[in-house]
Design goal:
The protein is α+β, with helices and mostly antiparallel strands and 479 residues long. It is 48% helix and 8% strand. The strands form three sheets. The chain has a five-stranded mixed sheet. A two-stranded antiparallel sheet has the order 4-5. It has a two-stranded antiparallel ribbon with strand order 7-8. Helix 12 (289-295) runs antiparallel to helix 13 (304-338).
């Protein structure tokens, strides 16, 4: 009886909070952007798309004839920008009020993803962690990792040569199922060569080919991100008071799910970090990004805060780079199968420049503009994050699980307006990168633009997706 009374109290409190939110916004008597009609109190929480969101947002944008659409997620305004102009006007030109990030209660408070630079709010911790990240992953610094990258790429090439039909298995290396899913489905999460490469670069750890404890923890943690990172999946994100419900209470299954996920998230952050610290103490450390950062600390001062920031920067690097690369490689193989003429032109350029007695090196890129253009076109043709910035293209840290994770929403810090529409303070804002870059499922794979003389001279102003992405997204520079 007491549990039912407690549950009823939380429900009443939650409804009151949502109602007061709506009441405070109605005072302005301004028109919100168009969007689907929602339910009383809960708005669009029940009919917001849970998968392939970018397609539904594009459909609504066309239906309402507006580049900006609005959903009400139990009192939290959710704004989707469906054109490059709208994204530039709101996320770039008004970046002083749109560069903040939403703090997801499920993702940050309950699961523990607040370590990730992408999900941190502005503050000293964010600045310190981003500074540490940027020092080692800015474009002119990543050249230091080319030898390790070359090593893993050639391992990948050997696998392809041995069993070419198993190309996706080689990309993933092998797969493991995790039972965490919002709809009760088992979700495939791969152990990947890209993941092994980043683990090697960041921590100096060479993972086991199967059942590696570091990768196992990271994969489970990334699965939690894939589910909880999608706005609208959990009511607690719009009614934060629900996070205080006891785990055992009926309706609090999200608390039990978060508790299990938090174990893996903590392990992903702590285990490799502690392993590197132990190796430094034992003088058995392998050169790595984290080892370099830790060895620079003054041993005679309190380094608690500094180590916390370095721990965050290292874990952000892994979580932001492993599955994004898997997705891009998969898209590349798809494009080569669908467009054999493109494949033939690329092979001809390689044969002409490289010949057949050696493998390409990174230094050959400028001599092969068509192959380089194919890489750029792959990013545009199948965006890794259909609702946000391209991850790791500017040394960014936007984690992704192939195409099931949306972007990290921006948060509007004060009331604003656009095209006569009212944008309330606290609105979550995302850009529909897929719609801008792709437009429709029939868009062809066309690398010719990126190999033109004009593009080669001015890649950023010409829209290089490997430099900027399809959408201008903010002044908050990627780590």
């Amino acid at each position: 009886m007491m549990s039912l009374s407690l549950l009823g109290g939380f429900i009443c409190l939650s409804v009151a909070i949502v109602y007061l939110r709506g009441f405070s916004r109605r005072r302005y008597k301004l028109q919100l952007p168009p969007g689907p009609k929602g339910w009383p109190i809960f708005g669009n929480s029940f009919d917001a798309p849970k998968e392939f969101e970018w397609l539904k947002y594009q459909q609504w944008s066309t239906e309402y004839d507006s580049p900006v659409i609005h959903l009400n997620l139990s009192g939290t305004p959710f704004i989707v920008l469906n054109t490059a102009k709208a994204a530039q006007d709101i996320l770039e030109k008004r970046s002083s009020v749109t560069s903040d990030r939403a703090t997801g209660v499920m993702l940050n408070d309950l699961i523990g993803w607040d370590f990730n630079i992408a999900f941190m709010g502005y503050g000293e911790r964010w600045r310190a962690a981003r500074r540490a990240f940027h020092q080692h992953f800015r474009p002119d610094a990543v050249v230091d990792y080319l030898p390790k990258t070359t090593k893993w790429v050639r391992e990948f090439a050997k696998l392809l040569l041995d069993k070419p039909d198993d190309f996706m298995e080689h990309i993933n290396q092998y797969a493991k199922f995790f039972d965490f899913s919002l709809r009760g489905k088992r979700v495939l999460m791969p152990h990947s060569i890209p993941g092994a490469l980043i683990m090697d670069i960041v921590y100096g750890i060479e993972v086991q080919p199967k059942h590696d404890p570091y990768i196992d923890s990271a994969e489970a943690a990334l699965q939690s991100l894939a589910v909880a990172g999608n706005p609208g999946n959990f009511l607690v994100d719009t009614v934060p008071a629900l996070k205080y419900l006891p785990d055992w209470l009926p309706g609090a299954s999200f608390k039990r799910m978060a508790k299990e996920w938090r174990i893996h998230t903590t392990a992903m952050i702590e285990r490799p970090f502690n392993a590197v610290k132990a190796a430094i103490r034992n003088r058995t450390v392998t050169p790595s990004v984290l080892a370099n950062m830790l060895e620079r600390l003054d041993p005679y001062v309190d380094n608690t805060f500094a180590e916390d920031c370095l721990r965050a920067a290292a874990a952000t690097a892994y979580s932001g780079g492993s599955h994004t690369t898997v997705s891009v490689l998969g898209s590349f193989f798809l494009a080569m199968v669908l467009y054999p003429d493109v494949q033939a032109k690329a092979r001809a350029e390689i044969d002409r420049i490289i010949g057949r007695d050696r493998l390409p090196e990174f230094g050959d890129e400028e001599s092969m503009p068509y192959v380089s253009a194919i890489v750029k076109e792959t990013w545009r043709w199948r965006p890794v994050l259909p609702l946000g910035e391209y991850p790791l293209l500017e040394c960014c840290s936007r984690p992704s699980d192939l195409n099931v994770l949306g972007a990290v929403p921006h948060r509007l810090i004060r009331d604003d307006d656009y095209m006569g529409y009212y944008l309330p303070a606290g609105s979550l804002i995302v850009g529909n990168t897929w719609y801008v870059a792709f437009k429709s499922i029939q868009t062809p794979f066309s690398p010719l633009l990126y190999s033109s003389p004009m593009f080669m001279r001015h890649p950023i102003s010409q829209g290089d997706p490997s430099r900027r992405g399809a959408l201008p997204q903010r002044r908050r520079i990627h780590p």
